[in-house]
Amino acid sequence: MRHTVIIPSYNTLNHLKNTYKSLKKYAPEVDIIVIDDASEDGTWQWLNSLSDSKLQIIIAAERKGHTYWYDEGMRNADTDIVSILHSDMIIGPGYFENMLKHLKKGKVVCATRIEPPIHPPGKEKIVMNFGDDHDNFMWEAFEEFVTSEANSVKDATTKGIFAPWMLYKEDHFAIGGHDQRFAPYGYEDSDIFNRWILAGYEMVQSRDSLCYHMTCRGHRWNKGVGIENSDYKSTMERCRREFLRKWSDWIQNDPYQFPIIYPKYDFGFIVKNSSDVQLIEFLEPRCNNIYLDQNRETYIKLEQKRSILNLSERVLPYDNEKNNEILITIDGNTFDQQDYQIITQLPQIIKQSGEIGKFQLGNLFIDIIQLNEYQNNLIKL
Which residues lie closer than 8 Å to 261 by C-beta, 6 or more apart? Predict the structure, then answer.
């Protein structure tokens, strides 16, 4: 079944060479789109030196990030089925076949990653060391393991979703593709996973579709493990806050990395004694509106650069009319660690309480006027 794999690459030339080598070795029939995301490491020169009728090359004039290029690559694909691959991933034998056998319309299929022992283990992946950099990858040992492992778990699936994944292109764009507020990278995957699930798509992980993932070389560590890019922390923090503004809750997953999605409610936080800007910084992304008696203009000026939203419409004066469906009154002078924990779990707490009315939790006064849920409004861009 013909399909296209999309691979954005930013300064990962040596890893990209391994990714490309594995594709030509184990899946020579697949159509490939590689995007050089304004790299400075000779990526475009190497790509232009290749003679490959199955390869389409896109050279970016400026860096836009994989959040943008996944979708743009798909728009350039000639096939109905598309998949994505990180430029630090090496596929094994049977990789695409073992995803395609599960694929149908309205379904997303992800592969199983094998990773070196850099990050914590999990049920969704295999931790095994076949090398931790482009120049020490053990090709023969990897191929032998993948062949054996795929045979032992043939046709097995679990319920999870993470990169690398495959789906029908029309399903991806039916909900608008990736949300570009998370460009160039950062939590765009968790956002679209939530939206696929809420749209009713089926999620499945193929346990015999195996690839090796060096991890984090496409953005965080593309100068080497532990050598963090200068923009990584600030980019991830900005996108973390945008994710909270959108979903009012942080990312949660089950042991197989299947997302747990709690309702999005219309929260309004009324903050008395809002002299602590750090408290405002913690609270604001978790609600639709925050009402402040102090530091409103100061906070907006400091924070606006980290949001595509107009914060003047979210951060309102304390005496402004409150039209939110759930109001939480907070006193900055008494806000403590228990209150902090309550706020981080607020969607779950409200979901479990399920009752309209007024009550107190810790030092927080909660007034539930209506219990409408708005997460399904986030499915389509």
Answer: 194, 197, 198, 375
